[in-house]
Amino acid sequence: MKLNIFALGFSILAFALSVFSVYSVNKGSEPAVSVAPPQESTVDSTEKGPSVGQASSSLDDTADEAKTGPTVEDVTKALARVQGRLANLEDMLDGAGPPPFEPPGAGSVDQWGRPPRPAPAGPLEKLATDFERQKRVAERRESLDRVVEQNTSRDFDTYGEAGYQKLVSLYDSARPSASSNRSTEETEKRSEALDQMVEEYPDAYTTSVAIAENALDLALQEDVASVESYYQMLTQNAGYSDVVTSQGVEAVPVIQTYLARQYIESGKTAEAAAILDNLEASYGDSVIMDRTELGTVAEKPAAEVIQELRMRLTQ
């Protein structure tokens, strides 16, 4: 297809140059002399006009032959033919372009058996989607604030003022340090305080916060085994399911998202599918702190994160 287009274009160019050269001679000017030696044309001259070399060669013969060149009417007809061929060339180029985008039908799959990707959203549709996302995030944030307030009040009512103060003191010792320089001694003290919380206050909401914050801290350090251990502690106690960290992060769905990504990357597809099923069933309306394509952290509706991970799981 490309060779035919190039051949047609070269033919049109050669024909136009030949007509222009002969027409210039017919107006009484001196014959033009070709700088380059005549070359053989790769296009059939009987069908698509003389080549540049043939036109230049004809001008070198005699002045009498030059005076018998085409008339203005001949040139007008020749230019009309050139314009027609250019129009045909444009039609051929237009026909060679990519086909318009057509989204696949519902339930279809591509050649690798993957579900179809959605059609690109327009500017207005994207704006509406972003607005709806922000609305869901704000509503979920208000809901989480109420959960924290209720559970904190429950701890105070359950253990009394003295018991609650001791619980908070243990939490301060058990929570991860903000410092990047963590000594072995500091890590051991934090672990001992967390163990004491689990032993003395196993059902306290504040204990679940300490466990969740340690799990998220270890996720940042890529310690998958320890994250799995803390995740098991959170899921085995029904009172820990709605834990929200002191930074306002709904911990369990974020930990599940982290583990699902790790399982997908390591080829543990069954484990990834199981944790995504639980995430969708238990936290489908949650807001998840997740990394964007630029590496920053942003709040996303759980449904979006689940859809993305399921697509990765099928690739």
Secondary structure layout:
Layout: H1 2-26, H2 45-48, H3 52-59, H4 63-67, H5 72-95, H6 123-174, H7 184-200, H8 205-220, H9 224-236, H10 251-265, H11 269-283, E1 287-291, E2 297-301, H12 302-314
Antiparallel strand pairs: 1-2
Explain the overall architecture.
By secondary structure, the protein is mainly alpha-helical. The protein has 2 domains: 2-93, no CATH class; 125-314. It has helices at residues 2-26, 45-48, 52-59, 63-67, 72-95, 123-174, 184-200, 205-220, 224-236, 251-265, 269-283, 302-314; strands at 287-291, 297-301. Strands 1-2 form a two-stranded antiparallel sheet. Strand 1 (287-291) and strand 2 form a beta hairpin. The longest helix has 52 residues, at 123-174. The two termini are 35 Å apart.
Looking at this protein, list some descriptive labels.
elongated, mainly alpha, two-stranded antiparallel ribbon, 315 residues
Helix tally?
12
State the total count of DSSP E strands: 2
Number of domains: 2
* Rg, nearest Å: 38 Å
The overall average pLDDT, rounded, is 74
Global outline: elongated
Helix content: 55-70%
Beta-strand level of the residues, as a percent range? under 5%
Low-confidence stretches: 22-67, 98-106
Distance between the termini: 35 Å
- Largest sheet entry: 2 strands, antiparallel
Give, in spatial order, the strands making up the sheet with the most strands: 1-2
The computed structural class is: mainly alpha
Write the H/E string, N to C: HHHHHHHHHHHEEH
Write a brief structural summary.
With 315 residues, the protein is mainly alpha-helical. It has 12 helices and 2 strands. About 17% of the residues have low confidence.
